[in-house]
Amino acid sequence: MRYWINELWRLGYMRFGLGALGMLLGKLGGNLFAGLGWGLAAGLGLYVFLHLRHVRLLYVWLLKNPREAPPPGTGVWGDLFDRLYSYQKAQTQLQQRLRDILRRIQDSCEAMRDSVVMLDPNGDLEWWNSAACDMLGLQPDHDRGQPITNFLRDPRFIDYFEAGDYREPLLIPSPLQGNRTLQFHLTLFGDNERLLMARDVSRLHQLEMMRRDFVANVSHELRTPLTVLAGYLETYSDHADQLPERWQRGFGQMQAQTTRMQNLVEDLLLLSRLEIDSPNDDRDTIDVPSLLDGIAADARDLSAGRHQLSVEIEESGRLLANTKEIRSAVSNLAFNAVRYTPEGSTITLRWRPWHDGAAIEVEDDGDGFDPIHIPRLTERFYRVDKGRSAATGGTGLGLAIVKHVLLRHDAQLEIVSRPGLGARFRCVFPAPRLAPSAGSASLPSDISP
């Protein structure tokens, strides 16, 4: 009899808990003493009592301090207490790690000299570092939740903020000190939230202005002596037959190099003017077909019959732009094609629809070049083939001039080339820069590359 009681106790405690064991003992007691009904009632009461006791222990533990060890439990309740404690401990450790990471990020941002400002999806201030207080005048006591445009009221920043195109940074004067220049860069993250970073680039801006002024002043000062040299060399060339033969070759080389220096100075002056002067709001209505015909004629004179030049017109609209600047940009592209493509190549000047706007293209079927050079082609004096460029007499500033002219006209330069497949230089103008031709219908757009 004792053996069976011990086995029932072990089975009930390990598998079902004390409640189930109470019901089992109650059933046995009912069979022995008062019948089956009273035994089941007693066992059920004991079972409910034990569960309520464990529920109270769980409530008290969660109410006081769940970080402490859980109360002792039996059966399923003991396993539940252990699992809850393990889960709560893991969550506590995870939260602590996240707090440490967040604190390190905040400490890192505080150590930065650049301003860092977090904006919510509505553009309101959420958090910023100490540098933003000094650079932008933000006050942590009462500025939180205010729109960023309340503090940066420059129309250029408002347009930049609302446009949503943050690929390029924005340079504007400081809202606190007009003699300081700040560079703003916005980054989207999360649910349309923004991270604003501001950097003081006053020193760099000042150095850039000094460089521009230096180049402009030196170029201007060089014009007079070069003009004098060119004049005397031309005079001597007219009497070259009276000079010794070994001097004649030297005078010819001096005249060629003086002409090259004059072209370089003129390009430097033009580039400096494009960088320094503000874009002119006055827009000429340019008849692009006539413009391209004139440039093609000049390119034919430069080519002297070595290339085939043609003009293709696929767009009926006219261009609203500065005629002189656009002629300079397209001429640079056409003359580069003449200089850098082999004899017998075909060069095409094209005016065509492009997406919502239109484009002027200069395309050739020459040698082309590796696309790795494309990102740097518009840098000053960058050359794909230095030896060939020196032989052609180019200044290395043509594409830099094209880039700045297009920037002043809200346009962009696209370059496509492959070795052996020629090159295509496309000047893309947006729709607001187009004016429809009188009495002409729009042509269907062709947006294939």
Summarize the structure.
The protein is an alpha+beta fold and about 450 residues long. Helix content is about 55%, strand content about 15%. Strands 2-1-5-4-3 form a five-stranded antiparallel β-sheet, sandwiched between helices.
Explained architecture:
α8 (about 290-305) packs parallel to α9 (about 325-340). A hairpin with a 7-residue loop joins β3 (about 170-175) and β4 (about 180-190). The chain is elongated. It has helices at about 1-35, 35-65, 75-110, 130-135, 155-165, 200-240, 245-275, 290-305, 325-340, 385-390, 400-410; strands at about 115-120, 125-130, 170-175, 180-190, 195-200, 285, 310-315, 320, 345-355, 355-365, 410-415, 425-430, 435. The protein has 4 domains: about 1-85, no CATH class; about 110-200, PAS domain (Beta-Lactamase), CATH 3.30.450; about 205-275, Orthogonal Bundle (Helix Hairpins); about 285-435, Heat Shock Protein 90. It is of the alpha+beta class.
Distance between the amino and carboxyl termini: 96 Å
* CATH architectural label of the largest domain: 2-Layer Sandwich
The level 1 CATH classification of the largest domain is Alpha Beta
User: How much helical structure, as a percent, in the residues?
Assistant: 40-55%
- What's the domain count? 4
Radius of gyration: 41 Å
From N to C, what is the helix and strand string? HHHEEHHEEEHHEHEEHEEHHEEE
What kind of sheet is the major sheet?
5 strands, antiparallel
**Based on helices, strands and strand pairing, what is the structural class?**
alpha+beta
What percentage of the residues does DSSP assign to strands (E)? 15-25%
For the residues shown, what is the average pLDDT?
Answer: 78
CATH topology of the largest domain: Heat Shock Protein 90
Contiguous runs where pLDDT drops below 50 for at least 5 residues? 1-21, 439-449
Principal-axes geometry comes out as elongated
Number of strands: 13
The CATH superfamily of the largest domain is Histidine kinase-like ATPase, C-terminal domain
